[in-house]
Description:
Elements: E1 2-6, H1 10-21, E2 25-29, H2 33-40, H3 51-60, E3 64-67, H4 71-75, E4 79-82, H5 98-110, E5 115-119, H6 127-138, E6 144-148, H7 158-163, E7 168-171, H8 175-184, H9 186-190, E8 195-198, H10 200-231, H11 235-243, H12 264-277, H13 283-306, E9 315-319, H14 335-344, E10 348-352, H15 357-363, E11 368-369, H16 373-377, E12 382-385, H17 390-393, H18 397-403, E13 408-411, H19 418-423, E14 427-429
Parallel strand pairs: 1-2, 1-4, 2-3, 4-5, 5-6, 7-8, 9-10, 9-12, 10-11, 12-13, 13-14
Amino acid sequence: MRIAMIGSGYVGLVSGACFAQFGHDIVCVDKDADKVARLRKGEIPIYEPGLDKLVADNARAGRLSFDTGLADAVGNADAVFIAVGTPTRRGDGHADLSYVYAAAAEIAEAIRGYTVVVTKSTVPVGTGREVARIIREARPTNNFDVASNPEFLREGAAIEDFMKPDRVVIGVESQRARDVMAAVYRPLNLIQTPMVFTNIETAEVTKYAGNAFLATKITFINEIADLCEKVGADVHDVARGIGLDGRIGRKFLHPGPGFGGSCFPKDTLALAYTAREVNAPQTIVEQVIEVNNARKKRMARKVIDFCGGSVAGITIAVLGLTFKPNTDDMRDAPSLDIVPALQAAGATIVAFDPEGMKEAARMLPGVAFAGTAYEAASGADLLVVITEWHEFRGLDPRRIKELMRQPRIVDLRNIFNPDEMRDLGFAYEGIGRPRPRT
């Protein structure tokens, strides 16, 4: 099939490359001429494991191309996916849909024959109807259907998520559109991937409901971790004890400094805003937002308290800056709250992140960046783990101790064994782990 992907950001680029791997002919369209030029040369503007090879292989095979204009791409397409950004709108928390609606207006002028226009971007309920209205009002004679096909990609594992998803959710309202979307996802049908066909509104709500539920699980276990610290319980054992219950499940029960990233913060806000608009307030989701925001700010206080109430004049080595491992994404990362608060309290910050330092340098002024984790630890009075990159789990704690001026660690991701670290002579603090009895 011929597919036009409008937007070559994270969702558009990953989806376009994966659809090409399915055997479809894909044109990824982006207004950023520099980005398109880089993509044509094989330069990937984001870090996602395996994406560079997937793009290169399919571009070489002639199934994947890039353009700045959408007229030809849309005019020749069986399906057009809108995968532009929907950032949080300043002032009210609603998703900014201006890019989606602008894309719809341009698509309207380019449609030549029957086309399914698909919202792949995460959009509030009602957006699909508005996209259809924009296209129909601009060109009443256009032959098209609108569909909703939300993405469920985890940064750092997006290709696997696309190729082997738990499910594919598709909102359509005509048999013809359903047939087109079934053909788009035929390779997944062949491996019996569950296909949830529903109406457009249901598909739109499903995306937000899924992310809000996962954000709630994270926030729940973070609050349980706080309780564990107070009463001498171990949150990891608690998480395993409840996670083995099939009704609960073990995923997203990992305590930490709060969720961030490109999805959970903005999607919970957008869901809460949309629900209030229709007088169906989501009080649990609103509480999750409030608790998570407060938690990220409170983590700096945890570090300061560990140091006896002051970090003035000390050097802190920070390991991990991105909101999660295997990405260079800094959006709403906990480090953006923690690091400036420590700087404001008088600490000098030396940080290392395997992929995020280029973006972090723009967002965290005054931070010194090291070439390795060991370099960051050298001469530090305290080491703080913010992001659980796998390579940090393999660090040699004895070497870290030799390099540090004072062997002290605040581990906000619980990547180290507290008993082992204390046996090695570290003053150690984790999240929701019992402190040594005195």
